[in-house]
Amino acid sequence: MKLYYSSGSCSLSPHIAICETGLDVELVKVDLQSHTLENGDNYLDINPCGYVPALELDNGDFLYEGPAIVQYLAGLAPDKNLAPAPDTFERAKLQQWLNFLSTELHKGVAPLFNPAMPDEAKAILVEGYSNRLSQLADALGNKDYLLGEQYSMADIYLFVILSWHPYFDFDASPWPTLQAFQERVGARAAVQQALKEEGLA
Fold it and tell me: Least crowded by CB within 10 Å, which of 33, 163, 175, 200?
């Protein structure tokens, strides 16, 4: 298999998942500005949407969208317990968190990377994002992970989103619960491995 990625982007989530599972996956770097691979190939031929991640299976099929990819990877390594069993309430909770992170956090914060965005618009986005962080911190409470004691693909995704804060000078100190979560997940060997492989540590 191949994972098409861009350093530090949301594709870091499946990259960490790959390191957690130990699956044999080739990493292929994508230049998101030019939509080209390092060998010059057009990435739009792989994913017409132009964004990462994309997972190429050994049979030539492609899977897009991070939440779908990480659940597929979890299914290939069920012994790692990165996703609850299918058709259970716990699996539905995982999907709930993946959807929340994708739609309420990821999409909410992504425009802040645009340097051309007016300050007034940024302030509105930051306020909405901050509200979601407060809800997230309340839900996490005293638990180590979003599903309680079980570390899951949702925690990996949340870690990646929170890791973007320095890129737009966001102060996360009002949420010590999330800061502790970030340190806890960031200390995992698989997370450190993925960060090093992307030149981020």
Answer: 33
